[in-house]
């Protein structure tokens, strides 16, 4: 009878895996959408080159890091070599140019924390944000994309986690919860920690790619095609990983002492980073070290109210994965 129960249990897990993979597949942007994104970026390049012949345009964020779901906005960075550019002037000029080319809803937000021009392409319906010289974001986009190439389970897990976070209202930095970028780093770190590991620590390996951006050295092993069987000793399925991810953040993470660090592939101590007290607005209630700007805690947006919301949501998700007969529905119920 025992082995019969095991077989039934196995079937349940297989069914749950298939459900999660189905959700993942349904979130992937179709090829036509990728083509349209490229077309819009090509148009933008053409317009930009006329005014700034030396400038480059880079896609960053979820359209460039491979963690973008269907219908995401495009994040674009205009890189201008001239170090003393006045960003506001450039943005206003850029807004002018875009407006005269019939792009819609063009707005220059020169006073935002990251100043941008927003626009919408009436042909494709795609929205786009353009920032100036935010090259660290371009480099961290490449890091995330490189990690995604190593093991398919990273992209699957991160899509599920981002979808959960958006459904549950905990992907809103202006309300004190975490950015998509932070969630992807949490997923990478989690897969680095599995036993056996599913992801390596690229910044701890031989350096094959190095750039210095804004005085920050960004260096790591980027020949990831050589690592395509790295995680194969670990056979965990996506359903197990989703369960273990939420379980970790609900019950095992030491919020009082620990910092998760993709850069080192390990847990660091808050004391070591001097992140034990509130300084200004940085409260360090959940600590996620940026892989390149190591003094930057991606949890710094979280305050004493939103940390409770976040932890309750992690606990809710862990409970659902443990006990709910149909976790794939309940997990993503709107809040
Ligand atoms: P969505 O699919 O749009 O939710 P995304 O990956 O595009 O996810 P964001 O729009 O929040 O995420 O951010 C765009 C990029 O900007 C992602 C990352 O390369 C960079 N970025 C975002 N937040 C930070 C941060 N706090 N520090 C450094 N880079 C950041
Ligand atoms: Mg984005």
From TrEMBL:
Superkingdom as given in the UniProt entry: Eukaryota
Stretches assigned to the PAP-associated domain: 237-296
The Poly(A) RNA polymerase mitochondrial-like central palm domain, residue ranges: 19-148
Compartment(s) where it occurs, according to its Swiss-Prot or TrEMBL record: Cytoplasm
Family affiliation: Belongs to the DNA polymerase type-B-like family.
Name of this chain's protein: RNA uridylyltransferase
Organism: Camellia sinensis (Tea plant)
